[in-house]
Amino acid sequence: MSPGTQVAVIVIAGIAGLVRGTTGFGGAMVMSPPLALLLGPRLTVPVVLIMESFVAVPMLLQTRHLINWRMIGIILAAACFTVPIGALILTHAEPQLLRRVIAINVIVFSLLLLIGWRYAGRPRVVTSVGLGALSGAMMGATSIGAPPVILYLLSGEDPIATTRANLNVYVTIGSVISLVALWYQGIVDAQVGWTTLWLGPAYFAGLLVGVRLFRRLSDTRFRQLTLVLLICVSIGILLA
Questions:
Q1: Widest distance between CA atoms in the chain
Q2: Amino acid 200: pLDDT
Q3: Contacts of 55 (CB under 8 A, 6+ apart)
Q4: C-alpha span between 142 and 139 (Å, rounded)
Q5: DSSP-H helix ranges across 116-143
Q6: What is d(CA 139, CA 221) in angstroms, rounded to the nearest whole number?
Q7: Is pLDDT at 25 greater than 80 in this prediction?
Q8: Residue 9 banded pLDDT, cuts 50, 70, 90
Q9: DSSP states of 168-199 as a string?
Q10: What is the pLDDT of residue 121?
Q11: Sign of the C-alpha dihedral, residues 205, 227, 82, 12?
Q12: Is the separation of the CB atoms in 23 and 119 below 8 Å?
């Protein structure tokens, strides 16, 4: 990896942490498309999952009493069965095709979040199972599995604190399951560990700055700006 690429990757990790700390989501969406272009999907996906897991654990401990297990448990159970399918896709898919799939995922869900769309029907068991299966496969293959769950959970009657707790437990447990599946496929190796170690400080530094900025910036405006930026970057990567 050239020095220029190393600097670019560190900056991307810092920006992703900043967005995650300020908005409460989007770390994987910010990191995955450009890192997949620079490092390749097979290295990017496990690195992103590891960093997102570490960020989510402290929040999980703080909000565990708010979790609606009847809602999120079904989604998680379905995801457990399809995460290995996503890991198989990551193992065997052509890297350039997978980079474009990651970029398309970010574009689609950024647009949906930007316009405020959410699932309009009532949460049902069948819908939760289908959503969990789709999201689990996406997480295992691309590290981006949370956006469809976000759109689904926002349609429920739970208060926003419970929704955030549900999403956080999904990201935490889903990421760990994905990492286990990727390790079984031989994708989580020493290179993944070293890359996570030297990217982690930039990500967590950005996270701390983002948490401080959250108190000063308009959350809605910053989310909108972030989503527009994600769309522009992902379109550029899609066309690259």
A1: 51
A2: 92
A3: 20, 27, 203, 204, 207
A4: 5
A5: 125-142
A6: 27
A7: no
A8: very high
A9: HHHHHHHHHHHHHHHHHTT-S-HHHHHHHHHH
A10: 67
A11: negative
A12: no
At residue 203, the pLDDT reads: 93
Confidence of residue 63 (pLDDT cuts 50, 70, 90): confident
| Residue 157 DSSP symbol | S
Tokens 């068991």 label which residue?
A: 125
User: How many distinct structural domains can be found in the chain?
Assistant: 1
Provide the whole-model pTM. Answer: 0.82
Query: Which residues make Cβ contacts (< 8 Å) with residue 135, sequence separation at least 6?
Result: 75, 79, 145, 146, 148, 149, 174
| Parent domain of 223 | 3-239
Tokens of 31: 């990191």
* pLDDT tens per residue, range 106-117: 888 878 877 877
HEC per residue, the chain:
CCHHHHHHHHHHHHHHHHHHHHHCCCHHHHHHHHHHHHHCHHHHHHHHHHHHHHHHHHHHHHHHHHCCHHHHHHHHHHHHHHHHHHHHHHHHCCHHHHHHHHHHHHHHHHHHHHHCCCCCCCCCHHHHHHHHHHHHHHHHHHCCCHHHHHHHHCCCCCCHHHHHHHHHHHHHHHHHHHHHHHHHCCCCCHHHHHHHHHHHHHHHHHHHHHHHHHCCCCHHHHHHHHHHHHHHHHHHHHHC
Placement of tokens 């379905």 in the chain: 78
Q: Please tell me the total number of residues recorded for the chain in this structure.
A: 240
